[in-house]
Amino acid sequence: xxxxxxxxxxxxxxxxxxxxxxxxxxxxxxxxxxxxxxxxxxxxxxxxxxxxxxxxxxxxxxxxxxxxxxxxxxxxxxxxxxxxxxxxxxxxxxxxxxxxxxxxxxxxxxxxxxxx
Amino acid sequence: xxxxxxxxxxxxxxxxxxxxxxxxxxxxxxxxxxxxxxxxxxxxxxxxxxxxxxxxxxxxxxxxxxxxxxxxxxxxxxxxxxxxxxxxxxxxxxxxxxxxxxxxxxxxxxx
Lengths: 116, 111
Prior knowledge:
Chain A is mainly β. Chain A has strands at residues 5-7, 10-13, 19-24, 31-37, 44-50, 53-56, 65-68, 75-79, 88-95, 106-107, 111-115. Chain A starts with a strand and ends with a strand. The termini of chain B are far apart. By secondary structure, chain B is mainly beta. Chain B has strands spanning 3-6, 11-14, 19-21, 23-26, 32-38, 44-50, 56-59, 62-65, 75-77, 86-93, 99-101, 105-110.
């Protein structure tokens, strides 16, 4: 069974440029998550989707970040414009929602963003 | 709010040594607890989990027991190998599907 797929794996851009990350979750998983992992820290949730609906985006900086999950499968996370402080690893995870929401999340390899 | 605190790394051990990585949490209610491992250049992988008090999660020789009285979920392994070198993250999931992670503990095992 294929895992969570993310692309690109690495991205280097100059500040003020736009950037987009793509995630394909595990087949059949209805919940998709985007996490931000700064160097030397644990991941922090940016946004969570249940099917097409963003049910938790409280930590997403909406002035420059946006996300979408069309058709409830693939998802794209965008930053426009990027700032130096956005350099980090962006992780995508998916899960099959169970009652209570404490379901196992499967992570992709992440996209390492470097903003120069 | 909910939080997870792990012992700081890096932890450096010789092969076959005993490993303990401490993890404590703060949460309302009854969270599920997890240990994830991140090998160099790879994504996070679930190592083990426990969903209620006194549960013991185990996998690949690693163990952790959900201790509600001490709000802890310490990771242990009796004999580490070089291949166990990685970053280990303790995490909790209280409600709504949001995982809250500790800062991670880097483990380096020398032959």
